[in-house]
Design a protein that fits this description.
By secondary structure, the chain is of the alpha/beta class. The protein has six helices and seven strands.
C-alpha cells in the first residue's frame, strides 16, 4: 500500500467493555461511563475513529476489532477479578483470534472499576495485561503521576487511585452512572484515551 493511502486512513481505537453483568440493575452503567470518557479522549485527537463495543455485542464487531490500531479492554472488578462476561470474551478469543495471532503488534490498554478504593483492581489490570501479552499485543500504561499522595492532594486529583498499569476507577456502591465514577476519574479516563490515541497515531504512522 502506498504511503498516501496509509495517511488517508483513520487510526481506529476500539474500546470493548463490560458494564455491570452483576449487581443491582438500577446502578449499571458506571464502567460504561468510564469507557465513554476514554472514547471522548481518544476522539479528541484528529484522524481517530473510535469504536465503543459492549462485550455482549461482540459477535457483530470482530472485524472492527481486527481493523483497530489499538484495543482498550475494560470491565468491573468482582471478587478480585474481571467480570464473568468479560472473561468469557477473553476465552472465546483463543479459539477464533489467538490461533492465528490476528491481534499481534496492536496496541492494548485496560481499565477497571469497583466500589472499593482498592478492591483488588490491580489483579484485574494484570489479568487484562497478560491477556493482551498472550495475543502478542503492546501494552500502554496510564502514563500519569499518582494523585492524592499528600496532605495537599484530594479526591479531585487526576489518577487519585495512583495506578500505573492502567486506569483504575472507584464508584460508590449506592450511586448510579449519573454520579459515578466521579469527575476526577472521568478526567483521568479522558486523558488516558487521548494518550492511547496519540500513541496509536505514532504506532501506525511512525
Amino acid at each position: 500500500m502506498v504511503q498516501e493511502e496509509i495517511a488517508g486512513r483513520p487510526v481506529i481505537v476500539a474500546i470493548i467493555f463490560d458494564s455491570g453483568s452483576q449487581g443491582n440493575p438500577a446502578l449499571r452503567g458506571r464502567t460504561a461511563a468510564l469507557a465513554q470518557a476514554i472514547a471522548r479522549g481518544a476522539a479528541s485527537v484528529d484522524g481517530t475513529a473510535v469504536k465503543l463495543i459492549p462485550v455482549g455485542e461482540r459477535a457483530h464487531h470482530w472485524d472492527e476489532l481486527d481493523e483497530a490500531t489499538a484495543i482498550v479492554f475494560g470491565c468491573p472488578t468482582y471478587t478480585g477479578s474481571g467480570s464473568a462476561a468479560f472473561k468469557a470474551f477473553m476465552e472465546e478469543t483463543f479459539y477464533i483470534r489467538w490461533r492465528d495471532l490476528l491481534w499481534r503488534d496492536k496496541l492494548a490498554a485496560g481499565f477497571t472499576n469497583s466500589a472499593g478504593m482498592s478492591g483488588d483492581k490491580l489483579l484485574t489490570l494484570e489479568q487484562l495485561a497478560v491477556f493482551a501479552a498472550q495475543h502478542g499485543m503492546i501494552w500502554v500504561s496510564l502514563g500519569e503521576f499518582p494523585g492524592w499522595t499528600s496532605s495537599r492532594g484530594s479526591a479531585g486529583d487526576v489518577n487519585r487511585l495512583a495506578s500505573f498499569l492502567g486506569l483504575m476507577s472507584q464508584s460508590n456502591s449506592d450511586q448510579g452512572p449519573d454520579l459515578m465514577p466521579p469527575a476526577s476519574d472521568r478526567t483521568t479516563a479522558e486523558r488516558f484515551g487521548r494518550r492511547i490515541s496519540q500513541l496509536a497515531h505514532r504506532w501506525a504512522r511512525p
